[in-house]
Amino acid sequence: MKTAFVFPGQGSQKVGMLQDLYNEYPIVKQRFEEADEALGYSITKLCFEGPDTELVKTANTQPAILTASVACYEVLKEQGFTPDIVGGHSLGEYSALVAAGVLNFKDAVYVVHKRGQYMQEAVPLGKGAMAAILALPREQVVEICEEVSASVGSVQAVNFNCPGQIVIAGETAAVEAAAEKMKEAGAKRAVMLPVSAPFHSRLMEPAALRLKEELDKIQVNDAQIPVVANVTGKILTNANDIKESLVTQAANPVLWEDCVAEMVNFGVTSFVEVGPGKVLTGFTKKINKDMELANVEDIASLEKTLEFLKGVR
User: Fold this and answer.
1) Is this prediction's pTM over 0.90?
2) Quick one: average pLDDT of 2-7?
3) TM spans, by residue (predicted)?
């Protein structure tokens, strides 16, 4: 029996996250202090006190979630629990890479801060959008995006989260047109998302190029724990391959359903979501209902997960 640790992406943040773990575990406090130092401002204060209007800004959200997620991982590690394989959704892939020894924590905090900034700057506010499409087959979502791209403007499927949930992104008018067509084609819902940029779409290419420059400045190591890459849904361990994958990831779809399938194929029977929220736990239930699931985001969930992990050793 193998265990995967998976790390959440943007959208899982909330004011007050990890406050109780920060007060209880010195390693959590240490990681938050290191993040503050790397950023040159207090992400700690922003996480614990807000305001939410600042925390939800992409350049703040990304280092906040990474710091919270890695801090949770450090607590599990101190308790003697490490995974057989790791993965993360979008931004969460950086948390997974810290856990796997690929990226230094402070480097990762700084890089994801820049990643958020570059993503936001790649497309002017109001020019890009995203929508969640529920209960429409993958092939139909892709086909309709291609039709709308040819007639209205750029739109594509960017997050293959789980059966029945795919997110599309692109130019605002094209996303709206595609969402309408998908409802006509039988989608249960097509919901415009409250985001500030069309993440993981081809419109993020300028951000990917700028991100490459940042990644070239830092040390990237071979993985000590296998990592599943968003862009392929396959395991990577080589440093150069991982760096290339991170650059590609910024402007290409997240194949999360494929990532989970790869981990199951690797022999995983238990998934622990490490970091704020339970989004990935929900996705995993829909992808493979036979998996054992746990999460760590506060003291209560930590205690349950420690008991869970003792049982699956």
Assistant:
1) yes
2) 98
3) none
